[in-house]
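Researcher: I've been going back and forth with a colleague about how NADP-dependent oxidoreductase domain-containing protein might be arranged in three dimensions. Neither of us has a model we trust, so I'd like an independent prediction. The organism is Pseudomonas syringae pv. maculicola, in case that matters for your notes. Sequence below.
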Amino acid sequence: MAREHGLDPSQMALAYVTSRPFVTSNIIGATKLDQLEINLKSIDVTLSDEVIEAIEAIHTSQPNPAP
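Model: Here is an independent structure prediction for NADP-dependent oxidoreductase domain-containing protein. You can compare it with whatever you and your colleague have in mind.
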């Protein structure tokens, strides 16, 4: 879904988490420098309403994908 909207998947995920009003910190899991750089750039990503709605639709259909 991220690629369909021209986004890096990890940046999209981190941007979504950061955009939630109840989140006070966002823990990233980079193990390599290039991953860290990509993850840090997520702070500059603003998700459109269309992307947020798509993420929430997926979450609604799969609320607990790893029980």
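Researcher: What would you highlight for our discussion?
Model: I'd start with this: Residues 3-61 form one domain. After that, consider the following. The two ends are 22 Å apart (CA to CA).
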